[in-house]
């Protein structure tokens, strides 16, 4: 698919819930997001990780190829009174000097990269002993739940979408960081925990519009038709409002040797 999150930047800012507070506490416990730490957040999008780390006193740079997403990130930063330095760029060719960062983070984006090149670039910009972290906060399609119904509808409208059926645990990321011929990170560890999110019907529709399978890849008319059908499903089959959507946090991390 031709994915352009810039086309859905406003819905992304308004409706896509960022990582929960519990994530940042767990990340800090393993050395990520500490005061004065120099962090580069790649594929930053609307800055959900970058902003969370900046709120905890880190010095954060964010990189993303979509200028529209970075503009939304700046608006969100203004609302909470933090400053993150954003610039357009790609994870495979980072505009930063060798060994200039204490940590590199990637939230909800690693699967969009050329992972080998992104790992090599992260390794290059990290100082010795620096931390590389790949994080996710994924909805969980369980039998009969609203997530499963929503995924089925996305596939009806966009059969090329490959995001359905996830478990929230991304085991391939261990290989992405541990292959010495690619990057050479050591001391790999991970953590995972579940954290449900409350969405109103309206917010869930906005959240889904902001996904890769909908507004980031479909035409405006197709998005409108999809949204109409999702609203009908919610009214007919999931009338409780708000909805309690199961999510799973997952992070794999390692250090530059």
Automatic annotation (TrEMBL):
Signal peptide: none annotated. The keyword Cell division does not apply. GO terms for biological process: methylation. GO terms for molecular function: S-adenosylmethionine-dependent methyltransferase activity. Keywords: Methyltransferase, Transferase. The keyword Transferase applies. Residues 40-134 form the Methyltransferase type domain. It comes from the Bacteria. Belongs to the methyltransferase superfamily. PANTHER family: METHYLTRANSF_11 DOMAIN-CONTAINING PROTEIN, METHYLTRANSFERASE TYPE 11 DOMAIN-CONTAINING PROTEIN. This is Methyltransferase domain-containing protein.
């Amino acid at each position: 698919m031709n994915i352009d999150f810039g086309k859905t930047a406003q819905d992304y800012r308004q409706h896509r819930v960022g990582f929960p507070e519990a994530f940042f506490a767990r990340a800090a416990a393993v050395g990520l997001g500490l005061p004065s730490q120099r962090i580069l957040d790649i594929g930053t999008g609307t800055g959900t990780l970058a902003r969370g780390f900046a709120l905890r006193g880190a010095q954060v740079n964010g990189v993303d190829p979509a200028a529209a997403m970075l503009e939304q990130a700046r608006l969100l930063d203004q609302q909470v009174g933090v400053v993150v330095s954003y610039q357009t760029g790609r994870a495979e060719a980072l505009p930063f000097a060798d060994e200039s960062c204490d940590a590199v983070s990637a939230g909800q984006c690693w699967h969009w990269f050329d992972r080998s090149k992104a790992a090599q670039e992260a390794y290059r910009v990290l100082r010795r002993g620096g931390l590389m972290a790949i994080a996710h906060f994924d909805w969980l399609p369980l039998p009969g739940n609203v997530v499963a119904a929503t995924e089925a509808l996305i596939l009806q409208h966009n059969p090329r979408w490959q995001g359905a059926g996830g478990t929230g645990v991304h085991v391939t990321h261990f290989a992405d960081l541990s292959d010495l011929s690619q990057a050479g990170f050591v001391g790999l560890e991970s953590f995972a925990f579940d954290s449900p999110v409350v969405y109103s019907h309206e917010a869930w529709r906005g959240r889904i519009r902001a996904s890769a399978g909908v507004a980031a890849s479909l035409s405006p008319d197709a998005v409108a038709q999809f949204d109409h059908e999702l609203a009908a499903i919610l009214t007919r089959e999931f009338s409780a409002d708000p909805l309690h959507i199961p999510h799973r946090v997952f992070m794999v991390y390692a250090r530059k040797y």
